[in-house]
From TrEMBL:
Protein origin, superkingdom: Bacteria
Listed name of the protein: Amidinotransferase
A Pfam family per the record: DDAH_eukar
InterPro entries: Amdntrnsf_FN0238
Organism: Nocardioides acrostichi
Amino acid sequence: MSAQAPTSVILVRAERFLPNPATAADNAFQTSMADGESPQEVSARALAEMDAVAEALRAQGIGVHVFSDADHTRPDSVFPNNWISTHAGGSVAVFPMYASNRRHERRADVLEMLKSTFRVQTIVDYSGLEADGIFLEGTGAMVLDNVSRVAYMARSHRADSHVLERFCTDFNYEPMAFDAVDSTGVPVYHTNVMACIGTDVALFALDMIPDPIRREQVRERLTVNGRTVIELTETQVREFAGNAVELHRPRTEEQRAVDPRHLVLAMSARARRSLTPEQVELIERSAEIVSVDIPTIELAGGSVRCMIAGVHLDHRRPIDASRLSDAVRAINEDAPRTNDGRFVS
């Protein structure tokens, strides 16, 4: 097992996907549909891309939990990592969202699945902060280093420093906030478009941090445990090279004999094409790159990382029905009864 890379993920199959007009103003990565395209055509293409991502992950042995969503008022529900994160030890966080039409992406059935399938001890819900106009959009706003316990965050109105500190206190992370902008001075709206942290390698657009002192502090913190930092250019960030996620795949002895790597780095085909041969070689020393073409979904300003909510929780053991029956029978036999055989409450 890897502290950084989950073995299971949550995906949402958004049947009414469209680029969200409520997020277009501050998401510089978002683009409009082509002229003449119908919403039905765009949604159909996006569904095929979502299914391709799920299939590619399953082919690697990753556990994929897919939830369907046919609600036309949730065009961005394909990006669940903005409202939920899970953490080793049985903790789940629920986050406050900036766009009002994204707030009802939070789903009770996802939380119920987690509680029934995995060991969940605590759910910490920050969504009430939306009423105060304070937001922290999950692992879009933060990129978490689960090895060194550091939460990296580019400040924006979707990523509030005070909520970051509160999250870090609750979940035992060190907060590392910074300003990040593109070449025109526009703030980076989500940290996970400029940074991906893996077990042995981090992809990070350090040059988008304008403060040289803070830039070097981030670099030093990333490398303190020997991790290699692959620096991304702004051009590569715009191709979604930073919007990748490391996952852990189970391997049989026969598979390990062919390829000992137990990690994969999931990203879009567009992101993969933007990487240099040298960058690919560094990544593939520890992780196999798994890429899927998702041009329609990327119209919404997010890519593969945004689509994936990793599950960093322990599985529950299946209940042995025969043992449960024996236990229930023993309880019933020992339970006090009235003279007519009824249980005493």
